[in-house]
C-alpha cells in the first residue's frame, strides 16, 4: 500500500514504442517543416520514399516519351505510390519478423545454460 511518506516502487517498465506525435506550434507550415525534418526517424520511411521517388521518376520519364505530360505525370505519381507503399510494407514486415526472431533467441538463452537436476557441479 502506498502512503504519502513512502515513495512508489520503481518497477522496470517494458520498452514502449516511440511516439511520433509532436505538439503543434500553431503554425501549419512550421509544423510541416518540423515533420519533414523528422521523417528519417520513422523506420523504413527513408528507403521507401527514395525507392518510390526513383521509380516514379523513371516511369514518368519513360511514359513521357510516348504520351502527353499529363498522362506521364499520372503514371509517375501512381508508380511512386505503389512502390513506396509496397517497399514500406515489406520493410515493416521484415523488421517485425526480425524482432520476433530476436525475442525467441533471447527467451531461449537461459534454457541453454540451465543444468539438469541430476548433474552435480563438481566432477568426481
TrEMBL record:
Comp. bias regions, Low complexity: 1-18
Segments traversing the membrane: 72-91
InterPro entries, per the entry: Cox20
Region (Disordered), start-end ranges: 1-20
Biological process annotations from GO: mitochondrial respiratory chain complex IV assembly
Gene Ontology CC, one term: mitochondrial inner membrane
Main location: mitochondrion
Keyword tRNA processing on entry: no
Pfam families linked: Cox20 (PF12597)
UniProtKB keywords: Membrane, Mitochondrion, Mitochondrion inner membrane, Transmembrane, Transmembrane helix
Localization, UniProt: Mitochondrion inner membrane
Protein family (similarity comment): Belongs to the COX20 family.
Record's protein name: Cytochrome c oxidase assembly protein COX20, mitochondrial
Organism: Cristinia sonorae
Amino acid at each position: 500500500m502506498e502512503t504519502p511518506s513512502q515513495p512508489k516502487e520503481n518497477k522496470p517498465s517494458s520498452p514502449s514504442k516511440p511516439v511520433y506525435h509532436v505538439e503543434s506550434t500553431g503554425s501549419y507550415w512550421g509544423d510541416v517543416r518540423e515533420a519533414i525534418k523528422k521523417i528519417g526517424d520513422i523506420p523504413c520511411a527513408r528507403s521507401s520514399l527514395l525507392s518510390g521517388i526513383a521509380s516514379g521518376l523513371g516511369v514518368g520519364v519513360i511514359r513521357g516519351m510516348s504520351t502527353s505530360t499529363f498522362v506521364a505525370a499520372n503514371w509517375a505519381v501512381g508508380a511512386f505510390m505503389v512502390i513506396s507503399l509496397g517497399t514500406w510494407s515489406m520493410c515493416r514486415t521484415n523488421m517485425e519478423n526480425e524482432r520476433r526472431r530476436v525475442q525467441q533467441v533471447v527467451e531461449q538463452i537461459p534454457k541453454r545454460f540451465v543444468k539438469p537436476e541430476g548433474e552435480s557441479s563438481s566432477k568426481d
